[in-house]
Amino acid sequence: MSEFSQSRPAAPIVRRSHGLFGIDLASPRHANKLGYLLLAPAALLILAILVYPMLLAIDLSFHDVKFATLSFGADDYTLKNYQRLFSSPEFWNAIRTTCMLLLVVTSISLCVGMGTALLVNQQFRGRSFARMLIALPWAVPEVVAVVTWVWILDASFGVLNWLLLKAGLIGGQVSWFSSPGSAFSAVTMVMVWKGYPFISIMILAGLQSIPEEFYQAAKVDGANVFQRFIWITVPCLAPVLGVTLVLTVLWVFRDFSIIYVLTGGGPVGATETLAIMTYEEAFSFFRMGYASSIGVVTLLICAVISAFLVKKTSHAIY
């Protein structure tokens, strides 16, 4: 009896690619490294256009540098800019104006944005058109919108004065930019008009992520509309509201074009915010070190407020 030996075919040789820089990206051990490699260009770009100028501004704030001497090298480190800043009445006036504008604009924009988001979240004919109208002010370029508002608020030929006169709400022409109170009101009105659509869109996205079962269960338990809003809508929107408030606060702090085109920071400093003061010191008086110190203080204030808001609203209750 003859014996036959059956030979198995040789297994193919699998050559594992070592990938980029000798790293096997297909290996589970290196699963996250591909993501880091893809993020590297964006991270380098952020370092180049954000982090480096920020560090440069911080360094510049410790030098008494004028625009004319900016290219001659910096002198010794000094706290002169900060000493002058914290003893300046103009700085504290800018702080007060910025905080007042922040509270008023954020509060009104949040209320208007919440109301419009709740409205367009309902089912009705023309809902898509209504959503488009709400987002329209946000889509208009800021300078174009502000120039239009300058015409609307004009004391002699403005549409707003004409409407108020026709309605009998005022007895004569109102010069919106001549007195501190009316100028602050005009700036607030334009900033709310420009800012509330973003809040409305963010809240609308949050509303659509809330499960309908929550509301159905609350109705079964006898909760009315107000109770459902307080105990379901607001807690579920907490993370969205936190992010929205942080972005709105940062926008109000850094916004320059609306105030500068409307009032230029006047009259008598009534609308001069930290952003306007920084610009004036840097490009009107050419005190670059002093302007950098204002920017650093503004950065610290924004960081503290943002951290507080994120901590308080980072987690939903449900």
Would you kindly provide a written description of the structure presented here, covering whatever features stand out?
By secondary structure, the protein is mainly α. It is built from 13 helices and no strands. The chain has two domains: 25-60, no CATH class; 89-313, MetI-like fold (Orthogonal Bundle), CATH 1.10.3720. Helices cover 65% and strands 0% of the residues. The N and C termini lie far apart (79 Å).
Task: Write a brief structural summary.
The chain has two domains: 25-60, no CATH class; 89-313, MetI-like (MetI-like fold), CATH 1.10.3720. Helix content is 65%, strand content 0%.
Count of individual beta strands: 0
**Order of H and E elements:** HHHHHHHHHHHHH
Query: At the third CATH level, what is the topology name of the largest domain?
Result: MetI-like fold
Q: How many discrete structural domains?
A: 2
The mean pLDDT is 85
* CATH class assignment of the largest domain: Mainly Alpha
Distance between the termini: 79 Å
**Computed Rg:** 29 Å
Major sheet:
none
Helical percentage: 55-70%
CATH superfamily of the largest domain: MetI-like
The proportion of strand residues reads under 5%
Shape: globular
Which structural class should the secondary elements be placed in? Answer: mainly alpha
Low-confidence stretches: none
CATH architecture of the largest domain: Orthogonal Bundle
How many separate helices? 13
